[in-house]
Automatic annotation (TrEMBL):
One Pfam family, short name: tRNA-synt_1c_C
Protein name: Glutamine--tRNA ligase
Motif ('HIGH' region): 31-41
Family of the protein in this entry: Belongs to the class-I aminoacyl-tRNA synthetase family.
Catalytic function, reaction form: tRNA(Gln) + L-glutamine + ATP = L-glutaminyl-tRNA(Gln) + AMP + diphosphate
UniProt KW ATP-binding keyword: yes
Signal peptide: none
GO terms for biological process, alphabetical: glutaminyl-tRNA aminoacylation; glutamyl-tRNA aminoacylation
Keywords: Aminoacyl-tRNA synthetase, ATP-binding, Cytoplasm, Ligase, Nucleotide-binding, Protein biosynthesis
Gene name, Swiss-Prot/TrEMBL: glnS
Length: 551
């Protein structure tokens, strides 16, 4: 459904398949259900599901749920929704790391039996202190040479609940002098009494990510385990577990790291997103200013635009920043094709067409998309009083202002040409309150008979027929590209003007409408799926028509 640029991962796959034509592409997307997915996750989803689809393989959705205190059913369900919404299907391949607890436990016993793991009584602080530094080797735990039988007994009792949280850990027995800190006898199980959203109180020991991940990959027959660059240093550990248990494992997955997506003007760490929600800086995970997929969805970003974005940014091996403008541009491109056009006035100025009879009504046929006749037409009602955008009038306009000014003419979109004859002002404030205009009755769908040129076209709504709507104008959540950089707290970089409300007048066809529209000359707008009501429609601005941030 979209074109894939080649990338280094594809090259690896192509090479593997050239050497072994039976090599399958089995990938997984492994989110932890400890928050909502964001646009960074979309990159990983598109990559993993996209590769699997292209090579006739499959992609598993695996909920990597090994931290009971942070995970919940709510998050797990939201993750499934988001992946589906983005347009990907995992079929019967939905898995949970928690499904493997019994197997992972058995393999941990195997490691103990092989002298490759031991039960350690050091507490977290002692362990940190003995870990050494990049330039100094660590010190070995006094429990490192505990006999196998004793390790097994202690580990079984850890599982049975004989010990308090923190009393013991199970550690891999690798190398305290390794230059790679990840190999300095890392913890692979910890005691943790916490109800798990799936396994309840069945377990009081939980496996660590670095242990659970390679073995879950192997269990599922994953061939390419794609993760972000910060796991590059963990790869030797990933491979170590696979090697130690090679004879017991059904498959040998390969970890490949790629650059994560960093998007300017927003934050993407789940911790920060959770803080924004909890501290009320936004209205929820699905606040349309959030980079979460639920937020972008509620804002009106089409999933096809997000897929196109992931395609456009590509997959590489070095971290960088992508500007929000790139994402917005993909949204514009998609909506330009698909969004029906309509008229809405965000900042209304009343216009009375004095030449038009008071009782007269007309309905104009308006195309829903100027380049796509197949999208049909709609009726737009017209009468003597209309509203136009306040910014489409200037009392003393420069020569190149092709909109309304005293004595000037303009075309009403889908309607007549009108001329401004009189400007009515509030006697006290001097504010323009009304324009009195006359129309040229011969100009409906036709140019003026006398050949005079009228350059500008403006949008409008009929005063009698227009409906009120709340319009939410969203801007970037942060006012700087890299929030938190150069100062202590990213929250100080929040954009105070990221939400602006206005009370708009919309053409009647919009009141019943749902989905995305282009409000002509104004931007793309999406019917808010939560707050909008037929009597009081609410629209979110998805993006402006042009990139107003570009110089
Ligand atoms: P956070 O660090 O914010 O908690 P995470 O990486 O721990 O996020 P996971 O739920 O573990 O979140 O992520 C699931 C998958 O999505 C992982 O394979 C991870 O590499 C990938 N992923 C997460 N963030 C990004 C990103 N910004 N760009 C690309 N891939 C990402
Ligand atoms: Mg995380
Ligand atoms: Mg993670």
């Amino acid at each position: 459904h979209y074109t894939h640029a080649t990338n280094f991962i594809r090259n690896i796959i192509e090479e593997d398949r050239a050497a072994d034509s039976s090599r399958q592409v089995i990938t997984r997307f492994p989110p932890e259900p400890n928050g909502y997915l964001h646009i960074g996750h979309a990159k990983s989803i598109c990559l993993n599901f996209g590769l699997a689809a292209d090579y006739g393989g499959r992609c598993h959705l695996r909920l990597d749920d090994t931290n009971p205190e942070k995970e919940s059913v709510e998050y797990a369900e939201a993750i499934k929704d988001a992946v589906r919404w983005l347009g990907f299907q995992w079929g019967e391949h939905l898995y949970h790391a928690s499904d493997y607890y019994e197997q992972l436990y058995a393999w941990a016993e195997a490691l103990i039996e092989r002298g490759k793991a031991f039960v350690c009584s050091l507490n977290a602080e002692q362990m940190r202190e003995m870990r050494g530094t990049l330039t100094e080797p660590g010190r070995e735990s006094p429990d490192r040479d505990r006999p196998v039988a004793e390790n097994l007994d202690l580990f079984r009792r850890m599982r049975a609940g004989d010990f308090a949280d923190g009393a013991y850990t199970l550690r891999a027995r690798i190398d305290m002098a390794s230059p790679n800190m990840n190999l300095r006898d890392p913890v692979i199980y910890r005691l943790q009494r916490h109800n798990h959203y799936r396994t309840g109180d069945a377990w009081c020991i939980y496996p660590m990510y670095d242990y659970a991940h390679p073995l879950s990959d192997a269990l599922e027959g994953v061939t390419y385990s794609l993760c972000t660059l910060e796991f590059e240093d963990h790869r030797p550990l990933y491979d170590w577990f696979l090697e130690q248990l090679a004879d017991l494992l059904p498959a040998r997955p390969r970890q490949i790291e790629f650059a994560r997506l960093n998007l300017a003007y927003t934050v993407m760490s789940k911790r920060k997103l959770l803080e924004l929600v909890r501290e009320g800086h936004v209205q929820g995970w699905d606040d349309p200013r959030m980079p979460t997929l639920v937020g972008l969805r509620r804002r009106g970003f089409p999933p096809a635009a997000i897929r196109a974005f992931c395609d456009r940014i590509g997959v590489g091996k070095s971290d960088g920043w992508i500007d929000m403008g790139v994402l917005e541009d993909c949204v514009r491109q998609e909506l330009n094709e698909t969004a029906p056009r309509a008229m809405a006035v965000l900042d209304p100025l009343k216009v009375v067409i004095t030449s038009y009879p008071e009782q007269k009504r007309e309905e104009f046929d308006a195309p829903n998309h100027p380049q796509k006749p197949e999208m049909g037409t709609r009726k737009v009602p017209f009468c003597r009083e209309i509203y136009i955008e306040r910014s489409d009038f200037m009392e003393d306009p420069p020569r190149k202002f092709f909109r309304l000014g005293p004595g000037r003419e303009v075309r009403l979109r889908n309607g007549y040409i009108i001329r401004c004859d009189e400007v009515v002002k509030d006697p006290v404030s001097g504010e323009v309150t009304e324009l009195r205009c006359s129309h040229d009755p011969d100009t409906l769908g036709a140019n003026p008979k006398d050949g005079r040129k009228v350059k500008g076209t403006i949008h409008w709504v009929s005063a009698r027929h227009a409906r009120k709507a709340q319009v939410r104008l969203y801007d970037r959540l942060f006012s700087v590209p890299h929030p938190g950089q150069g100062q202590s707290d990213y929250r100080q970089d929040l954009n105070p003007d990221s939400l602006q409300l206005c009370s708009a007048l919309i053409e009647p066809s919009l009141a019943a409408g749902q989905g995305c529209f282009q409000f002509e000359r104004t931007g793309y707008f999406y019917t808010d799926p939560v707050d909008s009501r037929p009597e009081t429609p609410v629209f979110n601005r998805v993006v402006t028509l042009r990139d107003t941030w570009a110089k």
